[in-house]
């Protein structure tokens, strides 16, 4: 029986993936690096410091630290969140319904905590979450499962009794590896892609979710 529901953030609660793409393109381009859509797809759900490490290993740069590159991307994302951030379809309805049904609700994101805080403040979602956890505090980010395992521990619920909502393949893999059920809510262009068949269920948006669906997982 599902007793806790854990949400990813980027691309699920807020359409922030374009913010990440814009920020990464801006910073990496300033270093003379090229990024493309295929790379962005592979980066989805990963920690930004791990993305920076991948880019550095592909094409090392000089004169600026990886930590500074990471921080520049993060600060640009926060600026865009505060300027343009908005809830995706069905977010408030789903959170409200789950809260009223007495499910424990957590958030487990690859984003740094300062970005999570900016998003929750901008969208006014703080009061829905009993636990908010960032993969920045784990040794590895998604698709490693630890961020979800830790979130379940903080909620006091076994992983087998947790459901995860995720929009990225890396996130789905992470949730399943943690021993949890997972509903994928990919972006519209990715909804019909075979790669999401590994999820327990795939939805077009959170608007399509109803609590009775939990019995079918």
From TrEMBL:
SUPFAM superfamilies: HAD-like
Matching Pfam families: HAD_2 (PF13419)
The organism's place on the tree of life at top rank: Bacteria
InterPro entries (UniProt xref): HAD-like_sf, HAD-SF_hydro_IA, HAD_2, HAD_sf, PGP-like_dom2
PANTHER family associated with the record: 2-DEOXYGLUCOSE-6-PHOSPHATE PHOSPHATASE 2 (PTHR18901), PSEUDOURIDINE-5'-PHOSPHATASE (PTHR18901:SF38)
Protein name: Hexitol phosphatase HxpB
Annotated organism of origin: Labilibaculum euxinus
Lineage: Bacteria, Pseudomonadati, Bacteroidota, Bacteroidia, Marinilabiliales
